[in-house]
Design goal:
The chain is of the alpha/beta class and 452 residues long. The protein has a domain of 100 residues: 2-Layer Sandwich (60s Ribosomal Protein L30, Chain: A), CATH 3.30.1330.60. Helices cover 36% and strands 6% of the residues. Strands 3, 4, 5, 6 and 7 form a five-stranded mixed sheet that branches. The chain has a two-stranded antiparallel ribbon with strand order 1-2. Strand 4, helix 13 and strand 5 form a beta-alpha-beta unit. Helix 5 runs antiparallel to helix 10. The termini are far apart.
Length: 452
Amino acid sequence: MTLPIRTSLMWVGVAAAALLAGCERPPVATVQHGYRGTGMEQIYNPRQLVSQEALNKLPDAIAPASADGPRASAVFKNVKLLGDLSVGEFSRHMVAITSWVAPKEGCTYCHNAADFADDSKYTKVVARRMIQMTQHINSDWKTHVAETGVTCYTCHRGNGVPKNIWFNTASTDPTTKLMGYKAGQNEASMKVALASLPNDPFTPFLGDSNSIRVIGTSALPDGNRQSTKQAEWTYGLMMHMSQSLGVNCTYCHNTRSFASWDSSTPQRGTAWYGIRMARDLNKEYLGSLAGVFPAERLGPQGDVAKLNCATCHQGAFKPLYGQSMLKDHPELASGVKVAVAAPGVPASEDGIVYFGVGSAALPADMDKAIGSMVAALKANPDAKATLSGYHSAAGDLASNQELAKQRAFAVRDALKAAGIDPERVVLEKPIQTEANAAGEDPKARRVEIAVK
């Protein structure tokens, strides 16, 4: 064999090895995931599943604490959440969060060691808001998390900052690029599984609420103005979701008709709610912390870190393979709904909580309204709180009365979270306010608290 032939064969072998390196070494397992004959199968690599197993192992459970004894809010200072837990339950919760989020740093990751009541550390303020977000997910997004729920460990897994987060990307002026405007394409990015697709599908779909559907409802392009470029953004999001869950397209879709809901799997509905949940959390909870994080924790555009599918799933079709930690931490199962400041809503006053239009979510400054009331109730065990819910004069009376009741219930729950027994809270009949000469009064949407 001549030298040129041996050299050629060597390069052929190198090329073949390079090509095979991109393939999965057998054996692989296939699982039918849809109707027979549709090709809806999931392909799993046993070796990858073994490596994933360690990443999805639950931490050791902490022994339950007694519910007896004084409430946490009566013993500890500046308890703004979970004050209705016993001292033992509250301490157990703090130990759990420390092990989930800051096992190396310990309590001082969030607390001032000299004064645990101090709020000067931004991490403590963020942690408090994240507990509220976790409760919100478990109580209001069961359409996505079902009864399995989530805890702080679901995302953090021993890290102060979850591994899978995203920031807004810097915008590019297409007129300044000699080679044209790439729109984030053809740049190797794990966000879209290294595909030549726009590598920031998060901003339009998980930050904003742009339409994801690009397929028309008829054979002819009747009214469908979606472009090929928009389709590429959608497929970028789909690549991210597949990679985040460790599945392929057929986990949710029937590839004969991606748009058809009738032939899709139930998981597609769960994913639909998951997208909307991510938008809600990024806007209402993470976005509300923009003024809390220091500059070094912000992205290139000055925005806070946000979540996507990989934040919780981390390569598994269900976070932690569907193992629930919520049953061991019921304090995270539900909570008081708190909204960020909404435009047009007056600032809360002592004993008065104002609400947004059509909303029963408590404002972010609710502590201003209930702080002195809680102190008075704790100082006088025989006193009771009377809640009077006022509603607008405009619109349907029955709907307004129901909304006034829900607002009063929200304030009652806030008092309970602060350590006040619900039996000491009296709810009065909803009261209608009259519109003034200038029109609807924003202060009509309120709940007044009186201690008697």
